[in-house]
Amino acid sequence: MKLTPPCSISLEPRGEKRPSAGQAPPSLGFVGTLAALIGMAMAPARAAEVSCLGCHEEQQKLFVGSAHAQAGLSCPDCHGGDPRVASESAHNVPGFKRPDTKQEIAESCARCHSDVRRMNPYGLPTDQLERYKTSKHGEQLFGHGDQKVATCTDCHGVHDILKVRAPQSRTHPTHIPQTCGRCHSDAKLMSQYQLPADGVAKYLTSYHAQLLLEKGDLSAPSCITCHGNHGAVPPGAKEVGQVCGKCHGRQRELFEQSPHAQAAAAGTFSECVSCHGHHAIQKATADLFAQSCVRCHAQEPKSLARRDVIATLIHNVQGAYEHATARVKEATLLGLATEDQQVLLQEAKTQLTQLEALQHTLLPEQMQPVAARADGIVKAVIAGIDGQERNERWKHLALAVCWGFMLAMAVIFWLKRRELGQKEKP
Ligand code: HEC
Ligand code: HEC
Ligand code: HEC
Ligand code: HEC
Ligand code: HEC
Ligand code: HEC
Ligand code: HEC
Ligand code: HEC
Ligand code: HEC
User: Looking at the structure, do residues 107 and 202 belong to the same domain, yes or no?
Assistant: First the structure.
C-alpha cells in the first residue's frame, strides 16, 4: 500500500512546513498505520484547507480527482507560495512560480519524478526526463527551445493528471492516438517540420487500431508501443524488426532466414515495414504478394517467379482447405456424423497458418513439407466424407429393398386372402 506520504503529512500541525512526499514516516507500527488510514481519508480535506483554493476554483476542480491530490500533494508543491495566506500576497514568496516555458515545466515535474527517494515509495521509475531528452521532442526543446513539441503536460495534462493506466487517462492505450493526434494530425504544425499529418488517420484504419479501439485488445500496439513514450522516435530501418518482433517473434525469426535479412541488417531494407507498411498495417492476405514484391522487383523475373511459387503453394492449400470445409458443412447439415473430420479440419487449419508464417522465409523448400502435410490431412477429410456418403447411399438402398420386400409380402398376403375369400363363397 502506498501510505507513506499521506501518513507523514496528516500528522503535521496544519500550516507547518511538511516533509516532502516520500520521506520515511517516523514509525510504521500500528499508530503509523492508523494515522496513514486517517491520513488517506483526510488527504482531500487537507487540500481544501490550502488558501490558494479560495481564489483558484478552476484549477481546484481539475485537481481534486488527480493522482497528485490522491498522493496528498497540493498547489504549493508545484508552485510554491504560502498556503496560509488568504490574500494575493500568498504569491509573494521567493521561488513562487508558474512554469512559463516547456523546459521549465519538464524540470519542475522532474524535481520529484527524477528523485529516487521521492518516487521509491510509489515504485515509479525516475528516468522520464532523461529519456525524454533523447526523444525527438526533448532534443528539439532542450536543443533549440522549440515550444511546439510535446512536453510532460502535453501528454499527461496539468492539473488533472491521472495514473497513467487509469481508464480515463490521456495515456491509457485507447486514448494515446488522440493524445498524440492533437499535434500530429495538425497539418499546419506538421508541415513546419516536413512531417506527414495523416499518420494518426492511417493508424486508425489499421488492423492494430481495430483490435485496440474496437475490441479493447490491449495486446495490440498504440503509438507508444512502437515509438516509446518518453523516448519517442521513429524506429529506423535497422530497429523496425525489433519493434514488430516484440510481438511477432515467430515472423521475425523466419524473416531472418529470408534473402532480405542481409539487406535489412545493412539498413537498405526495412524488415516488416517494406511489405506491410507502418501506420496503415492491414490484415495480411495473399493480395500482399501482388502489391509488395513488384515495388522493388518489377524488373526481376527471378524474384517474381519465387513469389509465384510461394503464393501458389499457399493458394492451393487454402483452396483445398476451403473445399473440405464446405464438404464437411454440407455433410453435417445432412445429419452425418462428421466429428472426426472436424478435428482433422482444425489440424489442416493449423498447417495453413504455419504455412502463411513460413512464407516469411521466402524459401519454398521450407514450405513444401508443411503444404504436403496439409494436403494429406485435407485428402483424409474428403475421403472420410466420401466414405460416409457411400455408407449412407448403401443404407438407403438396403432400406429401399426392405420396403420393397415388405410391400411385396403385403400384396401377396392380400391376394392370398382374396383367393381364400372367393373359395369360401358357395
Ligand atoms: C486572494 C486570492 C488568491 C490567493 C489566496 C492565491 N492566488 Fe494565485 N492568483 C490570484 C490572482 C487574482 C491571479 C492572477 C489571475 C490569474 O492568473 O488567474 C493569480 C495567479 C496565480 C498563478 C499564475 C501566475 C502567472 O504568472 O500566471 C499561479 C500559479 C497562482 N496564482 C498560484 C497560487 C498558489 C499556489 C496559491 C496558494 C499558495 C495562490 N495562488 C493563492 C489570486 C490568488
Ligand atoms: C503537478 C504540479 C502542479 C500542481 C500540483 C498544481 N499546478 Fe498549477 N500549474 C502547473 C503547471 C506546469 C502550470 C503551467 C501550465 C502551462 O503553462 O501549460 C500551472 C499553471 C497554473 C495556473 C495558471 C493558469 C493555468 O491554469 O494554466 C494557475 C492559476 C495554477 N496553476 C494554480 C494552481 C492551483 C490553485 C493549484 C492547486 C489546486 C495548482 N496550480 C496545482 C503545475 C501544477
Ligand atoms: C509524448 C508523450 C509523453 C511525454 C512528453 C511525457 N510522457 Fe510520461 N508517459 C507517457 C505515456 C504514454 C506513459 C504511459 C506508458 C505506459 O502505459 O506504460 C507515461 C508514463 C509516465 C509516468 C509513469 C511511470 C513511467 O515512467 O511509466 C510518469 C511518472 C511520467 N510519465 C512522467 C512524465 C514526466 C515527468 C515527463 C516530462 C519529463 C513526461 N512524463 C513526458 C507519455 C509522455
Ligand atoms: C512534489 C512532487 C511532484 C511533482 C512536482 C510532480 N509530481 Fe507527479 N507524482 C508525484 C507523486 C508523489 C505521485 C503519486 C504516485 C502514485 O500515487 O503512484 C505522482 C504521480 C504522477 C503520475 C502518475 C503515475 C502513475 O502511477 O501512473 C504522473 C503521470 C505524474 N505524476 C506526472 C507529473 C507531471 C507531468 C508533473 C509536472 C507537471 C508532475 N508529475 C509533478 C509527485 C510529483
Ligand atoms: C504538443 C504537440 C505534440 C504532441 C502532443 C506530440 N508530439 Fe510528437 N512531435 C511534435 C512536433 C512539433 C514534432 C517535430 C519535431 C521535429 O521533428 O523537429 C514531433 C516529433 C515526433 C516524432 C519524430 C518524428 C520525426 O521523424 O522527426 C515522433 C516519433 C513523435 N513526435 C511521436 C509522438 C508520439 C508517439 C506522441 C504521443 C505519445 C506525440 N509525438 C505527441 C509535437 C507533438
Ligand atoms: C506498429 C508500429 C507503429 C505504430 C502503432 C505507430 N507507428 Fe509511427 N512509425 C512506425 C515506423 C516503423 C515508422 C518509421 C517509418 C519509416 O521510417 O519508414 C513510424 C514513423 C512515424 C513518424 C515519423 C513520420 C512518418 O510518418 O514517417 C511519426 C511522427 C509517427 N510515426 C507517429 C506515430 C503516431 C502519432 C502514432 C499513433 C497514432 C504512430 N506513429 C503509431 C511505427 C509505428
Ligand atoms: C504490442 C504488440 C504488437 C506490435 C509491437 C506489433 N504488432 Fe502486429 N499485431 C499484434 C496483434 C496482437 C495482432 C493480432 C493477432 C495476430 O494476428 O497476430 C497483430 C496483427 C498484425 C498483422 C495482421 C496479421 C494477420 O492475421 O493478418 C500484421 C500484418 C502485423 N500485425 C504487422 C505488424 C508490424 C509490421 C509491426 C511493426 C511495424 C507490428 N505488427 C507491431 C501486436 C503487435
Ligand atoms: C522494399 C523493396 C523490396 C520488396 C518490397 C521486396 N524485396 Fe525482395 N529484395 C530486395 C532487396 C534489397 C534484396 C537484396 C538485394 C539483392 O540481392 O538483389 C531482395 C532480394 C530478394 C530475393 C533474392 C534475389 C536473389 O537474386 O538472390 C528474392 C527471391 C526476393 N527478394 C523476393 C521477394 C519477394 C517474393 C517479395 C514480395 C513478397 C519481395 N522480394 C519484396 C528488396 C525488396
Ligand atoms: C517480403 C515481404 C514481407 C516481409 C518483409 C514481411 N512480411 Fe509479413 N506477410 C507478407 C505476406 C505476403 C503475407 C500474407 C501471407 C498470406 O496469408 O498469404 C504476410 C503475412 C503476415 C502475417 C499474418 C500471417 C502470420 O504469419 O500470422 C503477419 C503477422 C506478418 N506477416 C508479420 C510480419 C512481420 C512482423 C514482419 C517482419 C519481421 C513481416 N511480416 C515481414 C509479406 C511480408
Answer: yes
| Domain presence at residue 286 | no
CA of 43 from ligand 1 middle (Å) equals 22
Q: Which among 76, 98, 120 is the end of a domain?
A: 98
Atom 41 in ligand 4: which residue has the minimum CA distance? 109
C-alpha grid cell, residue 96:
513562487
Total number of domains constituting the chain: 4
Q: Is this structure's pTM higher than 0.85?
A: yes
Calpha distance 268→7 (Å, rounded):
58
What is the CA angle 231-233-238, rounded to 5? 115
Q: Does position 28 have pLDDT exceeding 50, yes or no? A: no
Residue 77 to residue 21: CA distance in whole angstroms: 9
Taking Cα atoms as reference points, which of 209, 99, 288, 287 lies closest to residue 272? 288
Of the listed ligands, the closest to the CA of 272 is 9
Q: Are 6 and 94 contained in the same domain?
A: yes
The answer to whether residue 296 sits within a structural domain is: no
The answer to whether the beta carbons of residues 71 and 112 sit under 8 Å apart is no
User: Is residue 1 one of the residues assigned to a domain?
Assistant: yes
Domain span holding position 276: 235-281
Confirm or reject: Cβ of 272 under 6 Å from ligand 7: yes
What percent of the chain has pLDDT above 70?
88
- What pLDDT digit, counting tens, does each position of 329-380 carry? 999 999 988 999 999 999 999 999 999 999 999 999 999 999 999 999 999 9
pLDDT, mean of residues 231-255: 90
